[in-house]
Amino acid sequence: MTIPLPPHVESPTVDVQPGPGVDVSSLGPALERLRAHAGTSLSWADRLEVRLVRNGHPAMPTALLADAFLTIGSRLIRARGIAADPEEAIDRVCDRLCGKFDIVPRQRDRFTADG
Questions:
Q1: Phi then psi for 114, rounded to 5 degrees?
Q2: Cα-Cα end-to-end distance for the chain
């Protein structure tokens, strides 16, 4: 499902793909949180794709894995976040994406510079 963002916010295209065992009707707050991240801390990206799947790990049988791909120009950055609830999984994966991209601030400036 593609989440449309408000027209006044320049943000990446956000695509969420729920996997097996993920109840789409329970993802409302998590999707709103993802939209907020896309509009603020990840607004310099072109596209954000997140796959949500249930993790079958014995220690966390109800955990949700968020697998994210962030596209900036021709570059692709990938991160994963796992948590007991969808909102926390989204927060973790978005924080990891920001952390990975902040490692190379000169490249970020080059991608976001005008002209």
A1: -80, 135
A2: 33
Mean of pLDDT over the chain: 77
pLDDT tens across 53-103, in order? 987 777 888 888 889 898 888 888 899 988 888 888 888 988 888 887 665
Domains and CATH numbers, the chain: 2-112 (3.30.160.100)
pTM: 0.70
Per 3-state DSSP, the chain is made up of helix, strand and coil in percentages (nearest 5) of: 35, 30, 35
Residue 26 three-state SS: helix
d(CA 87, CA 80): 14
Residues linked to residue 18 through DSSP beta bridges, in sequence order = 52
Q: How far apart are CA 107 and CA 99, in angstroms?
A: 14
